[in-house]
Description:
By secondary structure, this protein is an alpha+beta fold. The chain folds into two domains: 3-84, Beta Barrel (Elongation Factor Tu (Ef-tu), domain 3); 87-258, Rossmann fold, CATH 3.40.50. The chain is built from five helices and 14 strands. The strands form four sheets. A six-stranded antiparallel sheet has the order 1-2-5-4-3-6, with no helix packed on it. Strands 8-13-12-14 form a four-stranded parallel sheet, with helices on both faces. A two-stranded antiparallel ribbon has the order 7-9.
Amino acid sequence: MIRHMVRHHNILSIVGNIITVSVPETEGNSDAITRFGDLAMVEDEFSTSIAQVIKIDRNEIALQVFSGTQGVSNAASIRFLGTAMKVTYSADILGRIFNSLGEPMDGGSNLAHDPKVSIDGPSVNPVKRILASKMIRTNVPMIDVFNCLVESQKIPIFSVSGEPYNPFLARIGIQTDADIVVFAGLGLIFDDYHYFRTQFEEAGVFARTVMFCNLASDPIVERLIVLDMALAFCCRRGEACAGIGYRYDCLCRCHEGSRYFYGASTC
C-alpha cells in the first residue's frame, strides 16, 4: 500500500486552523506510520491545502493547515505525504524569490526537480562550543566597530514606527561582505517587498540573494515556517560557503502567527 495514495475521511473536528482526523492503526508496516512533522494534503471539493502533523495521540492526528480551514468541510479527504517540509537547495536558487511554502513567486522557472533539504534538523545539545571569531564585515561603522557581526552569531535590530529601518536593513544586505545574503520577510506589505527587491536589483547583489517572503495578504500561519526555510538553507550552504549573511524583517509579526499555532506558547 502506498501511503500518499490513501485518503482518510474520518475528520473528528475542525477548530481554528487545526484539523483532527482519525487514522486506523497500522501494524507491522513502518512505512505506513505517520510521523510528527510530516506533511499532508487536505483536499476538498473546491480547494487543496497543505497541512503539517503537529500532534499524534494514538489514532488521532492533529494537522496544522497553513492556508487556514475556511471553507473546509468534514467531507474533505486527507492524504499523508510521508515527508517533512523541505526547501530547494541548488545553485538555481540564487537570485530567486520564494513564498512561505518554498514555492517560486517571481515567475521564474519551476524548481520542482532540484535537490531539496528538510527544514527540520535534529535537536542539538552541544557539550563544547568553539568561540566565534570570524567577523562578517557589514561596512556600517556603528556595527563593525561597536557590535561586530561574526559567523554563527546574530544582531537584533529594533526600531519604532517612523524610523527608516527598511533602508538600513537593505543597506546591510547590500554592503555585507558575505557570499550569499538570505532574506526572510514576515508579513511584508507589498511596498516593503517591492522596495527590498528593487534595492537588491539596483545595487547588483540580487544574483547572490535568496528571498523567502510572506506577504501581509498571505496566511498568517505560514509565517511560522519562513524562518525555518531560510535557516535550513543557511546551515546547508554554510558547509561550502565562507560567509553567510541572513536577516529577518518584521520579526514581531511572527507572534501573530503563534496565536494560530497549536500549543505554541512563544515564537
